[in-house]
Fold each of these.
Amino acid sequence: MSHMYNLAIIGAGPAGIATAVESYLQGIRDIVLLEKDQNHNSTIRKYYKENKRVDKDWKGQKVELDGRIYFVDGTKETTLDFFDEILANHSVELKTHTEVQKIEKREESVKEPFFEVFVAGSSIMAKNVVVTIGRMGKPNKPDYKIPTEIKNRVGFTLDGCVGGEKVLVVGGGDSAIEYAVDLSAKNEVCICYRRESFRRANPTNQRDIANAIMHKEVEPILGIDIVSLESEDGRVKVIFNDIEPQTFDRVIYAIGGTTPSVFLASSGIKEEDGKPVHDDNYETNIKNLFVAGDITQESGGSIALGLNHGYAIACYIQKNQN
Ligand SMILES: Cc1cc2nc3c(=O)[nH]c(=O)nc-3n(C[C@H](O)[C@H](O)[C@H](O)COP(=O)(O)OP(=O)(O)OC[C@H]3O[C@@H](n4cnc5c(N)ncnc54)[C@H](O)[C@@H]3O)c2cc1C
């Protein structure tokens, strides 16, 4: 523990990369980007299906980009290439396989306070820290129990999906619709959503799911709640509140992610209404400790919003500290 970074960013998703690159472009040097996974953007890698269309205006939210990162509509693959390229073109140190456990501010007997960022077996020092760890590290789970015998048939991503199965997708947002429509090419698919319509989804996904339902490629189970799951000869028996149970080979929940409250609390970051408290510059209750990206949003943000948060933080740090 000897080098003092100017800026440490925790989580190399869109918001983390944007904070790093926009800071670099503002003239800030000595930036480290800490990522727990083996590569940047683990949310995009794990949760986006192959060739997924990536919308800049995700969930229909129109976002004007404030910074210098020019992000446009594309696919999962072009988006990952785009982030590879901007990381390669700006001198930002990316440390992968580095999971941050907590952050502590050190202000005792030093002229300039700094942060100690704890990773397995060691720590990193930095004058400013930005937390951009997203919400998908912990996807939302149902509040009923998933029996052990069927755990390998119940998931939160498309991992393990093969063709020829009867699959239930749970959720009614964009991710759930995209999963259902994609799976319907090779599987018998039902989508279960507690509301009566897919009004929360963006217009393209609303059109896609309406088409899939019209062509009987996806069977809708709308306005219905799931009460519990049971094992039936190793398959998943789904008990609904208002209709007869049905048995599936696989159930996929696409119901968003949760605020990483334990991480925030262990670092002293205050939380209110399911979000970390921050001001207009994304600074938390602790000076020089910021939050950006999905973690600041109650029900998930978007890539473009994360890019804008990164730009705002970079401007603020540059203005206040140089
Ligand atoms: C299925 C799906 C489809 C989507 N489609 C779109 C779309 O088309 N367009 C769009 O704009 N948005 C889309 N989104 C939303 C978008 O992916 C998110 O808004 C965006 O990824 C949030 O960026 P972020 O940087 O805040 O967090 P994330 O992308 O979640 O990145 C957080 C990073 O932090 C890392 N991390 C977590 N904990 C730690 C730790 N303790 N230490 C170190 N690293 C850590 C993670 O491994 C991850 O790499 C979609 C989301 C999903 C789930």
Amino acid sequence: MEYIYGKKTARMDGTTLAARLGGYAEIGLDLGTGDGRYVEQVARQNPQQFLIGIDACRENLVKVSNRAAGNTLFLIANAEALPAELSGLADFITLNFPWGSLLTGLLETESRLIANLRMVAKAGARLELRLNESAIRQAGWSLDRACGQVVMNLEKAGFALNPACRLALADLRRFPSSWARRLGSGQEGQTLFLSGGYREQRVGEIADRKSA
Ligand SMILES: C[S@@+](CC[C@H](N)C(=O)[O-])C[C@H]1O[C@@H](n2cnc3c(N)ncnc32)[C@H](O)[C@@H]1O
């Protein structure tokens, strides 16, 4: 897999990654990390956690990876084709304000993105999504319909979701990501917060296996 440190990039294999992650209580993945500010802040506040920020756009990651703390790693990867080295690694996964294929991958049933979420999640992994109305409208959906669709797709894939709640502008302004600050101005509509966990196996899958 390709990681970035400042203006340079290099490859890391699974053995080296395992050595980097050794001794940490929890591993978190932030997909579509943007400029990585969220990963940087969470890692600073939680030294017992190791945070991996992933984005398809390498330019976004140059600055943050240059000053990265020891408990962070920044990968250049498409969330629809995550490196196999990340399989079963994540204790928690965040997708904050997804747009483009990161968002449409949540809106499509059995998408490659959702398959990749399943691939990287440990059993019981926590999942957090923050969905903003402006991106959802651009994708051609209303916020409520999109929310229902995302919940249905994720539940079908083995995630259990809590009821969605709306984030107040004050919450957005406090949230440590660059995109949240922008949304905190209130110019771009509502933002929904969804949280849940990965159950690993759906009831249907367990029944299928028993009858096989
Ligand atoms: C609106 S920005 C949010 C950035 C960050 N999460 C934040 O809160 O500031 C969406 C990010 O998702 C990334 N992205 C979109 N599709 C992606 C994909 N398929 N794989 C990885 N990153 C993707 C974009 O490059 C962009 O950085």
Amino acid sequence: MTDAIDLRSDTVTRPTAGMREAMFKAPVGDDVFGEDPSVNALQDMAADILGREAALFVPSGTMANQIAIKVQTRPGDEVIVEAHAHPFNSESGAGAVISGVQFQTIPGRRGLLDPDRIRPALRPDDPHFPPSRLVCIENTHNRGGGSVYPLDCVASIRDVCQTAGLALHMDGARLFNACEASGVEPRRYAELCDTVSFCLSKGLGAPVGSLLVGDRDLIHEARRWRKLLGGGMRQAGILAAAGLYALEHHVERLAEDHRNAKTLATGLASLEGLAIDLNEVETNIVIFQVVRPDMDAYSLFERLWREGVLVLPFGPDRVRAVTHLDVSPADIEQALAVFARVLGE
Ligand SMILES: Cc1ncc(COP(=O)(O)O)c(C=O)c1O
């Protein structure tokens, strides 16, 4: 469906002409030897933006999260995450396979962990229990509807971790959306965490790639695990160039995606049969409920699909729509007209 208005995810964006041009012209070398100038420039830029010593370019957000877990745990450790966190729910059980860790999940409000609920979840030093070693938080939270961590909440989580000797990883797949919405500089979040990952291939519009950022020693170790996992790429500068372009050209425009999400949500709220709390639309993710006896998320999805509007069912009565680089204000108006028609049938 090439002409569809694709609101399933911000991962569906295609590289712009400017980005393709940058990829075409990218100077390259062998990145496994550390000799790709474009990869090195991207890693330096990521470390600089986040105010940390070093960064590692990896193929995906999943690999960034899993390497972060690997380098900060030992087999048998416990990792504390919110119940709907990506590494627990959507990474094929990799934490168990790669790191031999178990997860303890804590329900959060819209995916955000409450520091007061982490404290009682920490394991006492007792041979019966797995050692609590790492907390992972997700900013923005995908299944939480693009919710943003307030900086003081991350600071409180950091305090809990520090007191108990745990590390803190932020899965910032959509970190720049969080920063745009909150006005918090990326480095302010990053200085509170041991590691932060962010994705280039979501709202930032690059075709591939994520960065893992942290202290030099940890990133050095991460590089070894990237190789072990098959993520050592050679002339990866072609991909890194897209990332550099994205960081230079596609960060500020995230505000546009957030405006489009608000317009979409406001339009959806006015339609009979859908329920949505407009206060919960903070970034580019809109999650709404289907509240009609004759329709559920799957049948709505199918009807919209036939009309060229793509969304993602998120359970029997929940649907997710995501705005991004390839969705214009006119597309939002058109999508709303299709919703109105489909719901009026
Ligand atoms: C919050 C979050 N973390 C990690 C990932 C994994 O990214 P990737 O698809 O690049 O592996 C995603 C993907 O949607 C995500 O939403």
Amino acid sequence: MNIKKKIFALILVISLTLGLNQNVFADEPLFIGCKLQRGVSNMYYYVDSSAEGYTYLINNAVDNWVDTGYGWNPIYMSPVASNYATDVDFYARFGDELEATTIAKTSFYDINEGRVSASESDWFFAKIEINVKVINTLREEVQQGTIAHELGHAFGLEHQNKNINSIMCQFSCGRKMHRVDEISHNAINTLYN
Ligand SMILES: [Zn+2]
């Protein structure tokens, strides 16, 4: 192959790759289905005493969503000392309450603390549970990324397991991104427009 043919072949491969990526991501829905009843622009979050040791990482993950570096989004969150009428609550689990492979988990509740399905109805608040046994085996950057990932669920974002550069990719699926990515940032603007 001469050099011109080589360059042409290389360009063809690059353009095919770019085209392929767009299609691969397109069949993964960005959203779980419903959203936070009160929106994301004036949220309050509570860190239970069990999760106190993760406060620094939780605050960093919150700050990352408030200021993603990709321009404006409606997210604003303030920490409060009680879980009364909060939008997001954090707990740490030290035993076997969560599955052995779960790093952290988000669940959705109505105003009466009844569990709801996020694909079927809006939620009054979300609960994020951190599995201490598992998260402590990961480096700090990944721990913070996991909390940011769970916050994405709390806001209504679905997994993006085919996009390892998305914060919404599960760590077990090869997530390389531990900060909020542009697609997830834009998804919030779409969901809470
Ligand atoms: Zn997840």
